[in-house]
Specification:
Layout lengths: L2 H5 L12 H6 L18 H12 L4 H4 L3 H27 L4 E2 L1 H12 L6 H13 L10 H4 L1 H5 L17 H4 L2 H8 L3 H20 L7 H24 L20 H6 L6 H6 L15 H11 L3 E2 L17
Antiparallel strand pairs: 1-2
The structure holds zinc ion (ZN) (2 copies).
Length: 322
Amino acid sequence: MQPAATNELHDASSTATLDPDEVEGAVADATMPAPPAVREPIDWLRIWPFLLLQALCGLVVWVGWSPVAVIVCIALYVVRMFGITAFYHRYFSHRTFRAGRIVQFAGAALAASAVQRGPLWWAAHHRKHHRHSDTALDAHSPHAHGFLWSHIGWIAARKNHPTDLSQVPDFAVFPELRWLDRFDLLVPFALLGALLGLGAALEQWAPELGTSALQMGVWGFCISTTLLFHATASINSLAHLIGRRVWPTKDKSKNSFVLAVLTLGEGWHNNHHWCPGTVRQGFRWWEIDISFYVLRVMSWVGLVSDLRPMPARALANSRRVG
Ligand SMILES: [Zn+2]
Ligand SMILES: [Zn+2]
């Protein structure tokens, strides 16, 4: 894609009615009185395919492995993690940079391939998380609801299944995003079909690689997607439980180097809750933030623009608590 073609579209999110600072400032609401935590009923009908996807990882015992299948697994993990962290999180949830309508849709489709529902659903829940972090109103607080619920239980709750468009009025105006949100399984199924086709083609035309359609499906889709899910979910669960607190946020978010490496920068979660309006989550040079580095390169070639810088308080030593 040529940069010139995207420049004129760089205002795809300019119709926004929600100021990102509103999301940032809403952290203060975390102290509001909240009702006691109540666990919602599980919607087993909707969640069983997702559980089956994870169970199918066990087929690896039968299909075996090959270098090409493992490489595809890792590559799809990294690329789709970037889609989740850069677009679902830093763009759709926090609007920390601008993108044209084509890049906006491409980023949404990439992230949708991670089987974490659609962009509007993801962003709507995440904005609520920042408003009510670690209170009973936070759908996935390990402190309010327990580890297992914060990690995976909450997405299976019937109450959390609909997309609350009132949380994302700025992006709900785009019909292509609402379509992607409505048919959120289309992209994952397309990816699975492509992987099965790739595996079959390699088995036919390059048998020396030792792969097959099923092997590519198990490694490229089931294992890669399961690892991707648990790494992403660990930011909801573990990143509010273990790690180091550096900033005096009203929630219990923590910084973790290990989680930051696994999630391309999201592990600096205490940093993020301190300044959710900046595109960066690693504030110091040694706080590795791969998604930010990639977004910066994308801004150099004109694919995205207006990366929101860190406010002064992001580096104010006087405010540090750790
Ligand atoms: Zn959080
Ligand atoms: Zn966030």
